[in-house]
Design a protein that fits this description.
Blueprint: H1 2-54, H2 59-144, H3 151-183, E1 189-192, H4 193-210, E2 214-219, E3 223-226, H5 228-245, E4 251-259, E5 262-268, H6 303-313, E6 317-322, E7 328-335
Parallel strand pairs: 2-4
Antiparallel strand pairs: 1-3, 4-5, 5-7, 6-7
Helix pairs in contact: 1-2, 2-3, 3-6, 4-5, 5-6
């Protein structure tokens, strides 16, 4: 589809170039011929005066010979001009064809990438939606084949179905949040960094204690210009991610420092770190690295994609890299609030 569109766009560009070349060529030819004829007529008048001065007895024959020579020269010049303009136009069209094909590719590349991303996202989302539905269907079919079952077995089956339903609810909520953050403009206010971090830590503290993971913070005091609730959600995503993939029994560090007119919050775990091939794709929707695809870690690969959308909505940036001392590190760079004049 895109190959055909590229060829059509190339022909469109080439048509514009050909029309431009034709206009310029005709203009140059008319102007050059006009100037040549004007110069030729002026030269003919000068030659006539010269003939009158030196060849009075043969004026008619001389004038005829001179007219023939000038007419022949005009034809030669016209032919050379036509050949030159033809060669220039063919070269311009050849070069224009190559450049048109290249520009058509450059023009369509973002559209093609967006189309591929949408197709990949649709396929991945369909797979993620199909999995819990297939599980529920299979479990219920097996359960209904039993002629007799106890109340406890029935409750267990309902509880299993509710778990799958909850997975679908989380997935749909994350997809809706991705759309909302991508469309809506957030109202940013002056927020104390410590308030954002403390609220996010409070939400995940119980899960951290259950895994014997200690969360430490080291923040410089600052006010940032963000939407507080969304930034708390972003920090919660990063902390939950660090808790899932970090080493059990280790600590999670939250660092904050001010640089120039920006403030950087960093979440560092002590896990195995990030695979280099995964880092460029970590914030893609529904992307999960090879390690993350194991059944030991639940998730859909939407958390970091949602974190990136939240960061963009807050005029912030989020990046991922491996920490030199081990583990993964996620940095969120936010805009500092203007300081009040002293």
């Amino acid at each position: 589809m895109f190959r055909s569109a590229r060829l059509k766009l190339t022909l469109f560009y080439l048509g514009i170039i050909a029309l431009f070349n034709l206009t310029v060529t005709l203009s140059v030819r008319v102007y050059a011929e006009h100037e040549f004829l004007r110069a030729n007529n002026a030269q003919r008048g000068e030659v006539r005066q010269w003939v009158l001065r030196f060849f009075d007895n043969n004026i008619p024959k001389s004038e005829v010979a001179i007219d023939d020579i000038q007419t022949e020269q005009a034809q030669i010049v016209r032919a050379h001009l036509n050949q030159g303009l033809f060669v220039i136009n063919m070269a311009a069209l050849a070069l224009g064809g190559v450049l048109s094909y290249w520009f058509a590719g450059r023009t369509l590349r973002p559209i093609e990438e967006a189309h591929e991303a949408q197709a990949r996202f649709t396929a991945d989302a369909s797979h993620e939606l199909r999995t819990p539905l297939a599980n529920m269907r299979l479990e219920n079919e097996v359960f209904l084949r039993q002629k007799h079952f106890t109340e406890e077995e029935g409750r267990e089956q309902i509880a299993s179905n509710l778990e799958d339903v909850q997975r679908l609810v989380r997935l749909s909520n994350n997809l809706l949040a991705l759309h909302q953050y991508g469309q809506a403009a957030l109202e940013r206010t002056y927020v104390v960094v410590q308030h954002v971090v403390s609220e996010a830590v409070a939400q995940i503290r119980a899960s951290a204690e259950a895994k014997n993971v200690k969360i430490t913070t080291k923040l410089s005091e600052a006010n940032v210009q963000v939407h507080q609730d969304s930034m708390v959600q972003l920090m919660d995503i990063l902390l939950d991610n660090a808790l899932k993939y970090g080493a059990k029994g280790k600590k999670i560090q939250i660092l904050g420092e001010e640089k120039s007119n920006r403030y950087t919050l960093s979440v560092i775990d002590r896990g195995p770190g990030l695979a280099p091939r995964d880092i460029p794709h970590l914030f893609d929707r529904l992307y999960r690295g090879d390690k993350a695809r194991s059944t030991q870690v639940a998730g859909y690969g939407l958390g970091l994609a949602l974190a990136r959308e939240i960061a963009l909505a807050n005029n912030a940036t989020i990046t991922a890299r491996n920490n030199p001392e081990g583990g993964a590190r996620f940095d969120v760079c936010m805009e500092l609030a203007p300081r009040a004049p002293a």
